[in-house]
């Protein structure tokens, strides 16, 4: 991988220069904004998007609230797991950062001394976006858009090759999607137990949802009476 990066005829390097070259022509203030957004802003935006989706699910309630919240819990867990998987990948590939191998790049952030493949930022944002998509497609599509923007920013900033970003997208998607059935199988019962608890029910449902779920339980014999009416019918 590192050998390919040193080749001037490599399309990966050509695309790196094309995208990073936009930073040379942009105003300095715009580059500073992109650097902040690419380093911190989009990660924060992804967290806020997950929180917004959780608030929407909690307020709406419904029978699938527990499974949706379980999927939202899986989103950050998938991102963390994907980053852990990336640790041995980076150590195996040992691809230097592009600015260490190629001259003339406009590097917008400093202090990047670790290996380049794959991008942690791309991995985290895409894993969270796919996990979010499992919980809610509309929010998930927005999350995927943010992840794609994150990938563009990393190349624009001169700290990653395009293939670093693509590899991060693939890794984040694989971890979040392939392990989702197992994660949901383990997390959904836990979330349902929290939903039934007195101290944690608000995490899954808002006041209206909890009132609807607990209405029969608040009326002694309501459920038994309903079953008797069904048998009589």
Automatic annotation (TrEMBL):
Organism: Streptomyces coacervatus
Lineage of origin: Bacteria, Bacillati, Actinomycetota, Actinomycetes, Kitasatosporales
Stretches that traverse the bilayer: 33-57, 69-89, 115-134, 141-159, 165-187
Topology relative to the membrane: Multi-pass membrane protein
UniProt name for this protein: Phosphatase PAP2 family protein
Keyword Transmembrane listed: yes
Record's subcellular location: Cell membrane
Primary site of residence: membrane
Alphabetical UniProt keywords: Cell membrane, Hydrolase, Membrane, Transmembrane, Transmembrane helix
Occurrences of domain Phosphatidic acid phosphatase type 2/haloperoxidase (ranges): 75-180
PANTHER family: DECAPRENYLPHOSPHORYL-5-PHOSPHORIBOSE PHOSPHATASE RV3807C-RELATED, SPHINGOSINE-1-PHOSPHATE PHOSPHOHYDROLASE
């Amino acid at each position: 991988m590192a050998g390919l990066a040193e080749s001037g005829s490599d399309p990966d390097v050509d695309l790196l220069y094309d995208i990073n070259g936009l930073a040379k022509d942009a105003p300095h203030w715009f580059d500073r904004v992109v650097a902040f957004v690419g380093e911190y802003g989009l990660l924060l935006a992804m967290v806020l998007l997950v929180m917004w989706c959780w608030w929407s699910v909690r307020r709406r309630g419904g029978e699938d609230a527990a499974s949706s919240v379980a999927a939202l819990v899986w989103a950050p867990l998938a991102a963390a797991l994907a980053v852990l998987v990336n640790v041995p990948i980076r150590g195996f590939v040992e691809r230097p950062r592009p600015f260490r191998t190629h001259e003339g790049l406009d590097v917008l952030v400093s202090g990047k001394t670790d290996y380049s493949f794959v991008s942690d930022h791309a991995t985290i944002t895409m894993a969270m976006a796919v996990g979010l998509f499992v919980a809610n497609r509309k929010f998930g599509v927005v999350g995927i858009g943010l992840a794609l923007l994150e990938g563009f920013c990393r190349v624009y900033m001169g700290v990653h090759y395009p293939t670093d970003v693509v590899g991060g997208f693939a890794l984040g998607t694989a971890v979040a999607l392939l392990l989702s059935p197992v994660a949901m199988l383990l997390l959904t019962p836990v979330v349902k137990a929290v939903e039934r608890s007195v101290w944690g029910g608000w995490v899954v449902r808002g006041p209206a949802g909890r009132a609807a779920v607990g209405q029969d339980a608040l009326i002694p014999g309501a459920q038994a009476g309903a079953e008797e009416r069904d048998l009589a019918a």
